[in-house]
Task: inverse folding
């Protein structure tokens, strides 16, 4: 579509202005994290090199990844089969299930942590003190995205027919779900994986208020000690995610869902 | 081949436009008389849509002129050209009712009318396209065919100098297509608007146009009335693009060609002497059951009033013929037949 | 989950399920219900229920009424509403304009991929990291502050106290509202078919006619929906504020955090729950409006 001259100028202006606003803090991070020590001397990568030496950081990254894996397992082995099961066998439960799965959209992280604090107190005393137990609540936070993309895929593919075909060929229900139906809706599941990772790595509210040391909490505490390293870590994380997002082809997002609660 | 009668109502003079390496229009010229419906026909990429959009002002040109009613409008903005346009898809404004869509043009400064006149004109047009009962419906509540009819009404509401139709039927079901194209023609004749109709469907073009222009590679190959285009094509491309042809060996001399043992006159544009390929239309064959025939039937398709009979010749070539069904009653797959030609002019291209 | 006891149930509900119903099938949802019950449903009930109790464990409307009357809680709540309102408008308008600007560019170019990736990243920007980014830029040693100081000592940007208050929080929030709106609104802008613009032009309409009669009206529901999403996003945010504001509870999420784990002895579970309840009510209201809007828009999406 050809734009008239005034539109073209306006367009460039908007892009420039927004780009500036968005780029400033990013540049600020780069600048800050490479500032010379005590104001003397030239730029330094000290802060960046020190990232590798931060024990808390590396252990929290490991834990966060572990949590992410458990969350994904919970999604694959529990949530997805249940949604498919209800879709196939218990259609009258579809509405209640949908409501449950969309509940996290209405209940922000800060509210969930208030209600769930007693449970996690109990867990850390009786089961484990490790942040791994956060996987339970995290998998609930992801429900809306998982459910949305799943039900979209399920509506698209005639799952009932597929499952029936599998059954008439002798497969048990479990086999039908895991072996036939799930691979068909693979793309919906894939985006769920990406979102899980993003949420687990970026979550701060619940973990900090429950006093667990996840990645974001460690970065926060690091910031109180050595600002430069904290900023370097943040910038590194950003670049990493950006590289991934840039590499995969653009995914179209319809019916915009709230992106993972950044709180 | 240019068509240059002077003082035509719409004159596209030597339009050129290229996109990168592709020449969409290459010195394209076309004249449209007032009240005429000209169809631009051609394969995709031939430039027909580019030409239409250039006329509408939605496409800028490298060179060339456009004149309407003897005024040069080449550099006139599209919203000042007073042309109505119907698109292939997404014609209607989705948030407006049928009536609001039709009234849209009449609200613009260029065509401002009093509100009572606007309402009256919209009603008249909605009646003209047969959708008075749908005035308050939104586009998504109407079928594709109905939407296009509203789009037509909307385009005609502003009493445009030229009506531009950009493959308006291509997105519709086959049955709706045939019905709607005849309605479009009926309305066009009734209102008398000069019309340019772009399509890749030759049945459409031949069915409703006063003249059909076949385009290729950004130029007009041949423009003529449908029957003339069909019976006396001027180039082999036109002959093969419009309708079905069967290439058969022929020998040309003295303005006539010998094909299948029959001597028939050649059409202007054919080669003038020597060996070549005659492009024969299916209905120009004569098929007679004959035990000593020169051919054998490969397949028969009953199409209702006619039958499509595919015939294998002794030299191995395969020919598609079309004969009235009652002539085919005694024919079956494998029947031996004698294939000859009716005495109609043929186009012969080089071998 | 074998079907050895198959009972034929007349299938009246649901579409397409031709499996024979079996009471045992309900067992299939049990594992999920256990997990969801523990980690989602029970906490929610806990919050809603617990708001109606006092610290001593007795049923009481104490906190329900107190939070409305007590300035210490009402003001943060008002602040939360204000900041959400303004940042969603600011972020919404800028994000929408940016989406329009990008949509008129090349459809599959490298630039488009780049922008979408950046948008995705920024919208997911953890609150803590975002706060640090702003410290690094507008804080005491930030490059913008340094530049501003060179221009003049009394420059607004030269003294970074503004960053640590409500206004600063708003500026930071807007930073992530813009990409979020961009991602949410871009599909709507791209759905504006060029044919509509062209039809408007051929019917005699100017650019103004097109935008006022066609472009804006069509985009409005999606725009409003985006604003609502942005509102909820801002309203629910905690991490950014926690990292940025070291003292005080100027917005409700911080108030809740303090009620949950205050070191100064102000911790009170029922208070936290009451505040949470009020938050949830607002969020549900806005999300309900949002889904109503979505239904309207999907009618037009052919």
Result:
């Amino acid at each position: 579509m050809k734009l008239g001259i005034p539109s073209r100028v306006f367009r460039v202006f908007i892009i420039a202005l927004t780009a500036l606003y968005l780029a400033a803090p990013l540049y600020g991070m780069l600048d800050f994290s490479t500032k010379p020590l005590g104001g003397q001397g030239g730029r330094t990568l000290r802060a960046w090199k020190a990232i590798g030496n931060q024990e808390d950081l590396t252990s929290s990254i490991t834990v966060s990844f572990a949590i992410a894996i458990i969350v994904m397992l919970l999604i694959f082995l529990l949530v997805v089969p249940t949604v498919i099961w209800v879709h196939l066998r218990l259609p009258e439960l579809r509405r209640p299930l949908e409501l449950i799965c969309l509940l996290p959209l209405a209940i922000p992280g800060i509210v969930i942590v208030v209600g769930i604090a007693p449970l996690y107190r109990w867990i850390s005393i009786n089961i484990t003190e490790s942040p791994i137990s956060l996987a339970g609540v995290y998998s609930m936070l992801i429900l809306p995205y998982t459910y949305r993309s799943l039900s979209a895929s399920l509506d698209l593919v005639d799952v009932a027919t597929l499952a029936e075909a599998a059954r008439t060929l002798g497969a048990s229900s479990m086999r039908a779900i895991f072996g036939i139906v799930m691979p068909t809706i693979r793309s919906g599941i894939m985006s769920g994986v990406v979102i899980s990772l993003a949420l687990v790595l970026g979550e701060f509210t619940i973990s900090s208020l429950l006093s667990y040391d996840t990645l974001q909490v460690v970065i926060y505490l690091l910031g109180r000690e050595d600002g430069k390293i904290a900023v370097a870590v943040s910038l590194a994380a950003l670049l990493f995610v950006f590289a991934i997002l840039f590499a995969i082809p653009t995914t179209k997002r319809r019916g915009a869902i709230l992106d993972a609660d950044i709180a | 081949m240019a068509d240059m009668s002077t003082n035509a109502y719409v004159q596209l003079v030597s339009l050129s436009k290229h996109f990168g390496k592709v020449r969409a229009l290459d010195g394209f010229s076309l004249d449209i008389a007032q009240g005429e419906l000209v169809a631009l026909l051609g394969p995709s990429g031939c430039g027909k849509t580019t030409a239409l959009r250039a006329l509408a002002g939605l496409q800028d040109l490298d060179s060339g002129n456009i004149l309407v009613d003897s005024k040069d409008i080449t550099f006139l903005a599209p919203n000042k050209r007073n042309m109505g346009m119907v698109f292939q898809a997404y014609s209607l404004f989705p948030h407006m009712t049928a009536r609001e869509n039709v009234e849209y043009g009449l609200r613009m400064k260029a065509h401002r009318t009093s509100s009572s006149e606007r309402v009256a004109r919209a009603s008249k047009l909605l009646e003209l396209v047969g959708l008075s009962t749908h005035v308050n419906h939104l586009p998504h509540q109407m079928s594709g065919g109905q939407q296009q009819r509203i789009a037509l009404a909307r385009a005609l509401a502003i009493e445009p100098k030229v009506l531009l139709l950009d493959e308006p039927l291509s997105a519709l079901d086959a049955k709706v297509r045939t019905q709607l194209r005849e309605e479009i023609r009926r309305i066009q004749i009734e209102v008398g608007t000069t019309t340019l109709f772009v399509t890749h469907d030759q049945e459409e073009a031949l069915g409703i146009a006063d003249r059909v222009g076949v385009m290729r590679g950004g130029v007009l190959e041949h423009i003529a009335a449908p029957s003339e285009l069909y019976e006396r094509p001027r180039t082999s491309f036109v002959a093969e693009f419009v309708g079905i042809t069967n290439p058969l060996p022929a020998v040309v001399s003295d303005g006539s060609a010998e094909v299948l043992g029959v001597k028939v006159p050649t059409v202007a544009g054919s080669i003038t002497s020597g060996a070549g390929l005659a492009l024969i239309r299916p209905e120009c064959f004569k098929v007679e059951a004959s035990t000593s025939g020169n051919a054998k039937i490969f397949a028969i398709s009953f199409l209702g009033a006619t039958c499509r009979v595919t015939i294998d010749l002794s030299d191995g070539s395969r020919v598609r013929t079309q004969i009235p069904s009652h002539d085919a009653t005694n024919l079956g797959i494998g029947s031996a037949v004698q294939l000859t030609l009716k005495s109609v002019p043929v186009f012969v291209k080089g071998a | 989950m074998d079907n050895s006891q198959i009972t034929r149930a007349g299938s009246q509900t649901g579409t397409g399920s031709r499996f024979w119903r079996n009471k045992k099938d309900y067992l299939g949802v049990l594992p999920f219900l256990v997990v969801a019950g523990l980690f989602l449903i029970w906490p929610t009930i806990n919050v809603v229920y617990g708001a109606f109790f006092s610290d001593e464990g007795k049923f009481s409307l104490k906190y329900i009424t107190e939070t409305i009357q007590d300035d210490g809680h009402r003001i943060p709540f008002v602040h939360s509403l204000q900041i959400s309102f303004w940042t969603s408008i600011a972020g919404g308008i800028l994000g929408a304009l940016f989406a329009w600007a990008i949509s008129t560019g090349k459809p599959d170019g490298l630039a488009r991929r780049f922008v979408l990736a950046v948008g995705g990243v920024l919208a997911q920007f953890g609150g803590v990291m975002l706060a640090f980014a702003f410290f690094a830029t507008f804080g005491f040693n930030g490059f913008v502050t340094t530049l501003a100081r060179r221009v003049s000592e009394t420059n607004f940007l030269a003294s970074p106290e503004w960053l640590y208050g409500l206004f600063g929080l708003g500026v930071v929030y807007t930073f992530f509202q813009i990409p979020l709106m961009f991602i949410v609104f871009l599909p709507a802008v791209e759905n504006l078919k060029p044919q509509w613009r062209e039809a408007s032009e051929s019917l005699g309409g100017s650019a103004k006619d097109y935008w006022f009669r066609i472009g804006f009206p069509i985009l409005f529901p999606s725009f409003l929906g985006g604003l609502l999403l942005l509102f909820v996003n801002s309203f629910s945010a905690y991490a950014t504020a926690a990292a940025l504001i070291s003292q005080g509870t100027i917005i409700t999420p911080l108030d809740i955090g303090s009620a949950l784990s205050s070191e100064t002895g102000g911790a009170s579970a029922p208070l936290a729950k009451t505040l949470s309840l009020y938050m949830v009510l607002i969020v549900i209201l806005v999300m309900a409006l949002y889904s109503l809007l979505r239904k309207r828009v999907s009618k037009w999406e052919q």
User: Anything to note?
Assistant: Chain A touches chain C through 101 residues (CB under 8 Å). Chain A has one domain: 56-258. Residues 56-258 of chain A form a domain with the MetI-like fold fold (CATH 1.10.3720.10). Chain A is about 75% helix and 0% strand.
